[in-house]
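Sequence in, structure out. Go.
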Amino acid sequence: MLEALGLGPAVEAVYRLLLAQPDWGVQQIGVHLGLPESAVRDALDELADLHLLQPSRAEGEFLTVSPEVGLGVLLNRNELELSAKQRRLEAARASVAAIVSQFSSHRHAPEVVQQLFGLETVRRRLEQLAETARTECLSFFPGGAQKPDVMESSKPLDQMALERGVVLRTLYQDSFRKDPDTFEYVRWLSTLGGETRTVPTLPMLMVIVDREVALVPIDPEDGRQGALEIRSRGVVEALHVLFTRFWDSGLPWHEQDNPDSTGLSRRERELLYLLASGHTDEAIGKKLGLSLRTVRRTASGLIGRLGARSRFEAGVLAARAGWLS
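Output:
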């Protein structure tokens, strides 16, 4: 448990035992821990080097330094070394960015569109982009909820990006609000400064980094095929405008989807619009991320509220009532 401070398992075991039994000698320690005397002596030498053990005037006895003092000093020393290393890494990162900016554009401009085949390839590329993001990372997450292990694995990258000052904005569909794992992940992200909103439907999976590169699916209907990495300034800017439009209409995660003046929630209004547009229950469920049962129950309730005898009539009456505006 204390290996990060330079104490191996045997050394830590000897130190703990001496704290509990300060009068024990080498032989007693070895018998109790099942260690040869040579291993015990090596451990004692290491503890002395770490200033966790002091020689006693009495031969064969040792004076252990209290954990508050000895381990506290080691912890502070390691924290200082870690901070110094972090500063060196940040300086190296800035130098790398300067070198890339100075030379890369002259020798080999990146491809405007690059194909990334397979989910694993896309996942690795997203991790690379997250590690190098400088200003913002914007994401659409349509469809079903993410797997818990995927969200868990993204936490370190999210945290490092936010600590660097990167703005993280994520748009989910309203249906994600019912998923406990997503709710917990968003709650954690918001404590670090991440921003999350939801909308009834999203057109496709999309990630935009620093307004310089965007990832979209090769086939929006089958994300398993992979993604297109786009670096065309015009296309990326257009996708950024698309994200902004959806973001501005999104509902912050901590707010509720309450009915409006017509008594409709946002999800009900979107379902009614899709219904009036001729979509099947299956297609509506896919677009809204809802089960077929939920779609049919909600549609039946809306048709009843309108006093319609058919779906077609429901669409006509909804339009007249201003429910589709």
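Check: Residues 21 and 160 are 43 Å apart (CA to CA). The chain has three domains: 1-108, 113-252, 266-320.
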